[in-house]
Amino acid sequence: MMNGRRMHRTVGWRIGLTLLVLCAAAPAWGDTVFPGESWEPAEPAALGWSVQRLDRAREKAEEIGAAAVLVVQDGRVVAEWGEPDRRLDVYSIRKSLLSGLYGVYVGADRIDIHRSLEAIGFDDAETPLTPQERQATVRDLLMSRSGIYIESAYETQGMRERRPEREEYAPGEHWYYNNWDFNALGAILGQAVGKGLFEALEKRLAKPLGMQDFRAGDGRYVYAETSEHPAYPLRMTARDLARFGWLYLNRGVWDGERLIPEAWIEESTTPWSPVRSGIGYGYMWWVATGERQYLTDMGPGSWSARGSGRQALLMIPAYRVVIVHQFERTPEQRSPPRRGLHELLQEIMAAAPAPGGAADRPAAMPSTDRPARAGSVP
Length: 378
Prior knowledge:
By secondary structure, the protein is an alpha+beta fold. It contains eleven helices and 17 strands.
């Protein structure tokens, strides 16, 4: 059994300092609730939301063909449009769900992310790893900095075109949005806990959060000839994704019960790798280094899970808000215009009451990389 209590030492002081700042600077939110069998609706105007701007946001959601939009503040539903009870493919949001599951098992001392692939006996039978590649740690994979560049399941054409050459970078040296890393992480977790990924997700997150719809059968495995480690696409409803987001926004605590260590929430949503202006990458999370995501002002400290086709799960601590956007991709329409999602989020945030204040998140680490070849970033 691997010891998971040794959180990354080089960030220990940052985590402690951030927690102190949070305690000192966070607004005194009251009346926070957690959904039981279903989400409790709120009266937007009573909470200070602009009903007129929410109507404009609803019109924008309809205009861009959103399948489901859900807005939650302090544990109550402020707005819901489309079909938030409909199971839809979440695409790369699956990676952030896996990051949360890693937090559960790190907290339970089942996984040590600082061990190398060689130390845990992990390889790829279809394309064996080189001695250099086997030195990558589980944490390197979580940051998408493994230095292992092998064609893998569920890759896009953009990923294939931008993939570095094998051993072009050493483990930990370079950020590249790498499906081999993400797929291998699913296999590593299964190896460590002796359970299929979807079964673990159902047992350790879906059931404790009271997800209304997700079952292990909502996931499937997709393989490639070049790698033995499958991708793990899954379907989930907006109302279940919002529960996961609300857990993270409450720093791993659900209705008084700690499910994920607070240190993991902080570490996994730290922007370890600069990706583009204002956005960094944590442990399979997209983290704002300023106050904007999707060209939308959200206050300091927001982060998101993103999937192809403009799937989005946003945690906005300055407002105590979670937003879910889902779109059903079809052969006729692969995804709504990027600008449309930006405008939708801008209308939602324009409708929100002024925030009570929130603590700044840690700044991105200085980069020593060459410009990142990011692949097809959501």
